[in-house]
Amino acid sequence: VAPRYFHSVEKSKEVVLRENLGTLRDLLDKHYADTGKYPENLQALVAKKYLRSIPVDPVTGSAETWVSVPPENLEKGGVYDVRSGAPGKARDGTLYSEW
User: Fold this and answer.
1) Model confidence pLDDT, tens digit, residues 38-72
2) Based on C-alpha coordinates, what's the Rg of the chain?
3) Residue 77 to residue 56: CA distance in whole angstroms
4) Which of 17, 50, 54, 89 is deepest in the core (most CB within 10 A)?
């Protein structure tokens, strides 16, 4: 029973991580559409009411481990994309940091 439980927990964390990444990326795009610039940091999404709070990365258990990816043109803002700061690989063999 224990191996199935741990498999389910890991699968759930990965599903939530993908959802959180999708939500953050969608809000970054909405911010850009509204202002013509990406936010300087993720906290700006909270300050401007796009988010109530920064979501927790379920793999690391922290909202502080997100890795911000700047746009190629820094005049467009500070956070173009976001990635997980979790070390290691997912069940499908891909690195969390590449999601």
Assistant:
1) 999 999 999 999 999 999 999 999 999 999 999 99
2) 15
3) 23
4) 17
**Mean pLDDT of all residues belonging to the chain:** 94
Alpha-carbon distance of 34 to 64, in angstroms, equals 25
> Rounded CA gap, 83 and 18, in Å?
10
Write out the DSSP string of 42-55: HHHHHHTTS-SSPP
Q: Which helix (H) or strand (E) holds 25?
A: helix 2-35
- Token pair for 13: 């964390």
* pLDDT above 80 (res 77): yes
For 9-30, b/e burial (b = at least 16 CB within 10 A) is: eeeebbeebeebbeebeebbee
CA angle 27, 52, 18 (to 5 degrees): 50
Two structure tokens written together for 41: 């940091």
Examine the pLDDT at 98 and tell me if it is beyond 90: yes
The helix/strand/coil state of 40 is: coil
